[in-house]
Amino acid sequence: MPGYLVDPRGGSDGGSISAYLLHRAKPHMPPWIGWAGTGLAGALGHWRWGDSAAAGVGLTLASVALTGATWWAGKSTSQQRRLHSAITVAAGSAWVTAACLAGPTAGPIDDLFIMGGPVVALSWNARMILRHTPDANEGGQGGDKGLLEKVGLARAQLGAAKVEPNRVTAPLAVEAGEQTHDDVTKALARIASALDLPTSAVRYTPNADSARRGELVIVPEDMLSEVVEWEGPSNLGGSITEPLNLGRYDDGAPLEVWLPGDPDAGRNSTHLLIAGGTGSGKGDTALNLLTEILSRRDVIVMLSDPKAFQDFAPLRPGLDWGVEGGTDTEVMVEAVQAAIPARTRWLGAHGYRQWVVEAAQQQTSPEHTCRSDGRACGCAGMPFMVAWFEEAANTLRALGDDAFTGIAQEARSAGISLIVSLQRPSYDQMSTSTRASLPSVIALGCDARDEGFCLPDEVLAAGAHPGAWGNRRPGYCYLVSPGVPEDRYPSPGRTRRFTQRAVPVMEALATWAQRNGASADPVTAGAVSSVAGRAYTGRPAPDTQLPAALRAVPEEDDMNQSGLLVDPEDAYIDPDTELPDPEDGDDAPLFGQESGHKPSPDEARRLFAQALEDFERDGQMIVGPKDFTDWCDRHNLSRSWVSLRLKDAALEGRLEATNTTGRWRIVPALAAA
Q1: 94 near 113, Cβ under 8 Å?
Q2: Distance (Å, whole) CA 305 – CA 575
Q3: What residues are paired with 39 via a beta bridge?
Q4: Residue 376, class by beta-carbon neighbours within 10 Å (0-12 exposed, 13-18 middle, 19+ buried)?
Q5: Averaged pLDDT for residues 614-633
């Protein structure tokens, strides 16, 4: 009787009222059946052993043994159930012993049976009614008490669980003074094992106001196993302030991230790190994010990709500026750094403490004016800006591990979001200052030893485990970012997959961005151009013609041409005319100077200045001695002489030092003047 259970899903076989009442009464009948059985056992025992002294001894010992066995068997249950069960068995066995020896109707024995039996049965009925579920334990603890004992949390208490589609959340409190959050996080793998679930399906979110309370989250079904292909952006024409949808969580909820801040919601602007090993789906994740960004009307994107836009080629026309690594990336880093103070100054002058959506519109409000008289200034709006460095390990090797530190620490207040993508964000590739300034991360599968570089310790302690995926589950990821609920940090998600079928849609999106997306405002464009010069041209118009060198020459049949293929200046030369005889001077040097001529100091300085102008005209705004190797050979000058001239040019304002030793940024000629 103490441990009876019923099937909560049982139903009545008939449709009558009596059948319904019987169905409702069945869960409460076991205690009463036990009461009746006890009376029958007492009557039969008296008939059998009424005059046997040995039977009395045996019945007494059996009663004590049964009570002790009940107490021992109840050690895995709650203290209340254990005590209740032992008292019930002790009372029942004592009555049976007395009834067998003295008779069921002797003295007060029958009265005790008639009055005490129903009381005990009703106590078990009341206990069942007070439970939320038939198999739940008391004290706010669920039927998983045995499970918690197995994993070392026997004294922990589980509260009422909140059941959602494919997600169960239960409050958990460990033993006061004996256990902390660390004990729960260490037990997560054992809980997953006991439930026969993957490790990532069991998470724990500590309560920030308590060292012993939190929430245990269990996701029984992995909804990420099905591959979902990308079909297009989620919010074409929306604002960059609205969430960017990258995929879904394992319980089906959308996987979303925000880049700009929201002062009303108390959310800060953020920079983002995309980290994942080879084969983890980092490329598809980046495409999910970039397509979402390019589909918004108030953002510009500057992107560096040392892989020559292997993944991003269909989207390149929609970028405001795209470069392929090397010196061009050096220029982009310097240009973004130059844009930060210019944009911050503009935002401050117009009364914005941070970039908001109103800053991207024409400034027609007196509340946001740069005029001293308080009237609307009518200035052009300033769109949000994304500076994206793909395969950033390449850039960090070339520029140093702190190449992005200045941008990461200062750009958020200027309405600029830095996105860095690389495989392993370890301390030997990226400076700790830069990593600390990237508060958001999309962590894909990686080597288990690299988990600490990708995710915060508290997220790993809560159950996140990207090392368990490696490259076996492309697109699986964890998202840590402002605006995302903290209990979602250890929840795995999955981004959508890009296939060849997505290419035409991406090309159409790039065309849409050309026609409908934002253009760089004069302040940003001016600051970037002051560093990049002609290397920065802004997003091309959709009808821009290709340069003549890149246009395809139409093929024609030589047989249909009316004449020979000759240059225009040679059209009147008669091929049958005899060549003239040699004359004196025909073998003289064409340029009239001896081989090995070394220019004078003034001429060398003039040639050096001309070389800087040539670099600027070609868009190469970052130079160093190695860029003058061929130039030195051509003019018989040494690289040491060039190094000195580079330093002199910096003193004269024609060059500026960069973060990399031996590399100089060309100041455009007009700015230098």
Answers
A1: no
A2: 53
A3: none
A4: middle
A5: 82
List helix spans (H) across 176-295.
181-194, 282-294
- Determine contact, residues 257/479, Cβ cutoff 8 Å: yes
Report how far apart, in Å, the C-alpha atoms of 443 and of each of 90, 218, 464, 499 are. 59, 21, 10, 22
- Alpha-carbon span 620 to 67, nearest angstrom: 91
pLDDT at position 134 is 42
CA-nearest of 656, 575, 584 to 623 is: 656
**Tokens describing residue 363:** 């400034």
pLDDT tens, residue by residue, 408-418: 999 999 999 99
Return the pLDDT at 55.
75
More confident residue, 554 or 474: 474
Strands across the sheet containing 664-666: 622-623, 664-666, 655-657
Q: Lowest-confidence range among 540-544, 643-647, 648-652?
A: 540-544
| Cβ atoms within 10 Å, residue 663 | 21
pLDDT of residue 174: 87
Match domain 600-673 to its CATH number in 1.10.10.10, 3.30.70.360, 2.60.40.10, 3.40.1550.10: 1.10.10.10
Task: Indicate the burial class of 626 (C-beta count within 10 angstroms; 0-12, 13-18, 19 or more).
Answer: exposed
Q: Which residues of 163-182 are buried (b: 16+ CB within 10 A; e: fewer)?
A: eeebbebbbbbbeeeebebe
Residue range 473-506, pLDDT digits in tens: 999 999 999 999 998 999 999 999 999 999 999 9
| Other CB atoms within 10 A of residue 450 CB | 19
- DSSP states of 348-371: HHTT-SS--GGGGS----GGG---
State residue 548's pLDDT score: 40
Nearest alpha-carbon partner for 301 in 292, 310, 582: 292
Per-residue pLDDT at 596: 57
Token pair of 19, please? 């059948």
Give the integer Cα–Cα distance in Å for 354 and 412: 8
Amino acid in position 403: A
3-state secondary structure of 493: strand
Residue 628 is predicted with a pLDDT of 86
Crossing angle for the helix pair 79-102 and 53-73, nearest 10 degrees? 170
- Per the document, the length of the chain is 673
Q: How far apart are the first and last CA of the chain?
A: 98
For residue 42, count other CB atoms closer than 10 A to its CB.
25
User: Would you place residue 358 in the very low, low, confident or very high pLDDT band (cuts 50, 70, 90)?
Assistant: very high
Closest to 596 (Cα-Cα) out of 636, 628, 641? 636
Q: Which of the four CATH numbers 3.10.129.10, 1.10.10.60, 3.40.50.300, 3.40.50.360 does domain 253-493+521-532 have?
A: 3.40.50.300
Instruction: Give the integer Cα–Cα distance in Å for 514 and 73.
Output: 75
pLDDT recorded at residue 159 = 82
Architecture of domain 145-218: 2-Layer Sandwich (3.30)
- 641 vs 127 pLDDT, higher one: 641
Q: From CA 303, how far away is CA 320, in angstroms rounded?
A: 8
Q: For residue 19, what are the β-bridge partners?
A: none
- C-alpha 56, offset from chain centre: 73
